[in-house]
# Entry
Amino acid sequence: MKILSIESSCDETAAAVVEDGRKVLSSVIASQVEEHKLYGGVVPEIASRRHAEAIVQVVQNALDEADATMDDVEAIAVTHAPGLIGALLVGVNFAKGLSLATGKPLVPTHHLRSHIASNYISHKELKPPFMCLVVSGGHSHIVMVEDYTKMKIIGKTRDDAAGEAFDKAARTMGMPYPGGIEMDRVAELGNPEAFKFPRPVVHDAPYDFSFSGLKTAVLNLIHNMEQRGEDIPKEDVCASFRSAVVELLVSNTLKACSDFGAKTLVVAGGVSANSLLRKRLAEESAKNGVRFFMPDKSVCTDNAAMVGSQGYYEYLSGNIADLSLNAVASLPIDYR
# Structure
């Protein structure tokens, strides 16, 4: 079964053709990163306009790359939540128009579920149930994936997401957007023991995260050094900050695996490309007898192939929308 998938939740206009949820026949992405670098982050209005300009050609390129036409496609999957509302609306409305014109079923797909599904592309043998750490610029969740479309939130951030903390700390040090990627690169050159950043604990919820205090600590350190006229050792600050964030993510996730008896662990989301996070999760999983899966870095960030993968399983579960489908800025991953 071939599914045409569309992703426009943030600043990438993407389309793909995916077969049976696992085989990627094409994947096309029109990135806006260079434009948003001028502003130090994504400008929602600009993102929406660029999606509207790019989406027709991106979808056509995806079909061409897959050597397919709409006659070969059996369904259309589209990210409808969560994300920037204006950006989502471009993809949703285009998919609705395409569905109306072709008579193909319309499959609403959740962005975070799609990130988890990126592992189905990278690991054909992976099947639920498993525990998953979902980490991105806007989300940090520990999720029990009971089935392809049935999920339960075990823990989540109480404030900032891990990716947001990385990006804001990087911006304070004058690093280019996207800051998390640059911070990971610079951190490889530094000493992770140079600075002692806090490891916040949510006492009434052992699987939840809190990154706001950690983010504030690094911002205060940088500002105080600047006020004293001191040079900021960026490599050491990045390494120490990255180590603190990763330690929190890994410790809570492995505790959840232990307490819930999960023997398989998966990581997903844009921050799953972080080199230290991948290394530490692999090490701790091995120590605890847990099978560990991580997506190929090519599908860690936003793309439509992951939407096509998850869309396939949503379709099989009967999740078909009519033309009243709307974009939703915020929607829990465990929605029914």
